[in-house]
Specification:
Number of helices: 11
CATH architecture of the largest domain: 3-Layer(aba) Sandwich
Largest sheet: 5 strands, parallel
Structural class: alpha/beta
Number of domains: 2
Order of helices and strands: EHEHEHEHEHHHHHHH
CATH topology of the largest domain: Rossmann fold
Number of strands: 5
Distance between the termini: 36 Å
CATH class of the largest domain: Alpha Beta
Strand content: 5-15%
CATH superfamily of the largest domain: Response regulator
Length: 219
Amino acid sequence: MSELMIADDFALIREDLKEGLEGEGFSIKASVSSGAEAVRRYEKGMIVLMDIEMESSDAGIKATEAILGKDENALVIFLTSHDRDDVIMTAMATGAKDFVVKGSDIKDIAEHIRRVEMGEPQLTQRVQEILMGEYKRLRHSEKSLLFFIQHLSSLTTAERELISCFMQGLKVKEIAERRFVEPVTVKSQIRTLLSKTGCSRTKEIVSLIRELGLERLFP
């Protein structure tokens, strides 16, 4: 069974989760109070229970992105009190495997962890409804939701930086100067990114991000 990391800024919550999950047979390898510490302490093979609001309102989101940047196969489960639709969409778009609301029974949390470990995430009905609702809202462009669910977690750090430049309206020459590479290198990276995402133009990527309201993933 995989080892767990618990990331939450409240010591009491970490202690309760540790005690409860150890009772369910899990091994807690790390217990941290910030997103930054979660990134530092992460080791391949861990399953991470990640709060969202810690040292900042989106610390868990940023930490998850950083962890997946280090290990694209990382298994992150958001365990948070934030259950607004937009928060759930943003969280799942990072590439996290599941989203569980705090206060859930410890046995339910343990079952979510086991299912993620088996590669069969058990999304709650609410999360499923939000994702399906978003799919229906964007049915005029079906690949919008699929783009984020299937491709966002596979983006490299360099590709995320490239998208951030697109969001700022930078041209190829400006991106090359900012990243200290040749324009031909940027053009090659753009071709790879377009192929990976199934988009035909960089403007299409920007449009999808804005349509879903996920600009903060690409600061």
